[in-house]
Amino acid sequence: MSFLIRCIDCGHTTAYHPSDICCPSCKSQWREAIYPYDEIAPTFPQNIARRKFDLWRYSELLPVHKPLPALKLGEGGTPLIRAVNLGIMLGCPNIFIKDERQGPTASFKDRQAAVTIAALKEAGITEMVAASTGNVAISYAAYAARAGIKLWAFVTSLVPELKMREIALYGSQVLKVTGTYDQVKQIAAEFAEQRGLYLDRGARTITSIEGMKTIAYEIAEQLTEELGLPEDSGALWRTPTWYVQSVSGGMGPIGISKGFREMALMGFTHQAPAIAAIQAEGCAPMVNAWKENQEEAAPITNPKTHIETLATGTPGRTYSLLRKIFKEDRGVFESVTDEESYRAMHMLAKMEGISAEPAAAVAFAGLFKLIRAGTIKSTDVVVVNCTGHTMPAEPLVLGSGWARDIVLPQQEESQPQEEGLLAALSRVAPERFPRILIADDAADARRLVRRILQSQGEYTFFEAANGREALDLVYKEHPDLLILDLMMPGMDGFAVLDNLKNDPETAELPVIVSTAKELTPDEKNRLQGRIQALMQKGGFMSDELLDEVKALLR
Ligand SMILES: *Cc1c(COP(=O)(O)O)cnc(C)c1O
Ligand SMILES: [Zn+2]
How far away, in angstroms, is 398 Cα from ligand 2 center? Predict the structure, then answer.
């Protein structure tokens, strides 16, 4: 849709490209998407009323020009469930659960991944790097699978193996780093930098924030349906008194508050909810800073929680941004112990039939604590985000060897950390992956081949849309293998073969022909002895192509 990127520090506006990471004027990395709200507001409610209840319902307010149906997995549109039994137990009748477990990979990270991957696809980006405490990488891996994007997922070795397996199951490369999450982020950034790849930048990723904000819109619509509007409100939608979420890096609250601010700006609501951000006590840098009234959060270098999903020790500027919002809207930061979280997890299951992962249960433990303290009152309308649960990924499917270990050297005074990271990295990135050239005029066909191969190995790909481009790339990039379509406009595959075979420099290049064409006997003769394998499009299973490629590159 029509939108611009505005720097939150100097106000400079530019057009959007996912790879541009800072403001051209002041170099700030903190920017946000803005839309022509005046134009959108008058017709927005009628327009969306006719649409399906998923996050693309709000497409006028999302930074993707043309969402591709082929990438969708049913993201957004999760239920808002009244917590009847918890309400009776706590004496607070209006508690609602926004059930983000019901996203495609069972966490609210699906919103960020759906929007970000759609934007990357639109910009033609085919490879990306993300550091994750688990769920971000799972969501990105699923959407990357559909988009034909290669994901390098850096996780800490403390992430439950169940979560790591799910990332691998979707065909992404898992890089397991022995170190803290903050070290993992650093090593992922180095890796992306070295190889010139797109890097997920957490809360500075504009598309991720925009994905998250759709939760706010859905809550406003759903709450209005549940409770109606307060008398004399004159607003279109109702907002809760409180939005409660377990927090690690703080992406969720940043996005949700942007959503509520936009709605107020367009006159759809009167008031943003107060946000309660709940952290695990063993890694609660934001809560500590808030309680000490600090403007910046001191890093936690040694997290002491079993709830690894929430172990972000350095919230950086996200804390300062949230602090400002919370001061305006009466928000609070609070922490709970692991034990309180496990108890809340059990309570939620027993009372409401909802099985959540520990990281999600942290929010419920926080809810109990804030009600007991009188911060949340019995008359308040409360929405708690049930942020996720873990899907079991069958271990037998993957066999062994699906993750790579990176062991960081123990940090010593004498050795600067940078060197340790780089040395560890050089062990994971082999200097030279096999180089494969895919020549096909159909972009979908090229994507499919790339996807099949990159889900189970490491290759560098080059793509050509016709014979001429293919030949140029052969000389320029010296591929180790050519996967060649026969029918292409201009110079076709047969002519490419003629050219290759006539030049001693290229005559030995292995070629796999992949074609949708029924070959005539004459055409078969022309290929005889000149190619290594013939694959019929639509007729070959992904494993056959993979086996063929592996055999030829050996
Ligand atoms: C990422 C995550 C959180 C924390 O989200 P942020 O808003 O990024 O701090 C909470 N719960 C689950 C299940 C998560 O995956
Ligand atoms: Zn700026």
Answer: 46
> Domain total for the chain?
3
Q: 29 and 100 in one domain?
A: no
Q: What is the pTM of this model?
A: 0.86
Q: How far is CA 550 from CA 187, 453, 459, 527, 539, in A?
A: 29, 9, 11, 21, 19
- For residues 313 and 351, membership in a common domain is answered with yes
Residue 414 has pLDDT above 70, yes or no: no
Distance CA 550, CA 554 (A): 6
For residue 395, the tally of other CB atoms under 10 A from its CB is: 13
Q: Are both 347 and 246 inside the same structural domain?
A: yes
Residues 219 and 101 occupy one common structural domain: yes
Q: Tell me: the pLDDT tens digits for 128-173?
A: 999 999 999 999 999 999 999 999 999 998 899 999 999 999 999 8
- Lining ligand 1 with CB less than 6 A are 107, 109, 135, 246-253, 309, 357, 359-360, 387-388
Distance 387 CA to ligand 1 centre (A): 7
359's tokens: 């990281």
The torsion defined by the Cα of 391, 396, 402 and 404, in degrees rounded to 10, comes to: 90
Which mutation among 78, 98, 102, 109 tests ligand 1's pocket best, with the greatest number of atoms within 8 A of CB? 109
CA gap 24, 28 in Å, rounded:
8
Reported as a single tens digit per residue, the pLDDT across 287-314 is 999 999 999 999 999 999 999 999 999 9
4, 83: one domain: no
Q: Which domain holds residue 373?
A: 59-105+208-386
Q: Are residues 320 and 454 in the same domain?
A: no
How high is the mean pLDDT of the chain?
92
CA distance 252 to 208: 9
Q: Which ligand 1 atom minimizes the distance to the CA of 249?
A: 9
* Pocket residue to mutate for ligand 1, from 133, 204, 212, 247, most atoms within 8 A of Cβ: 247
Do 230 and 322 belong together in one domain? yes
Q: Is residue 118 part of a domain?
A: no
- Amino acid letter for position 445: A
Which of 319, 351, 386 finishes a domain? 386
What pairs with residue 403 in β-bridges? 174
Verify that 66 and 19 share a domain, yes or no: no
Which of 101, 135, 391 is the best mutation target for the ligand 1 pocket, counting ligand atoms within 8 Å of the beta carbon and taking the most? Answer: 135
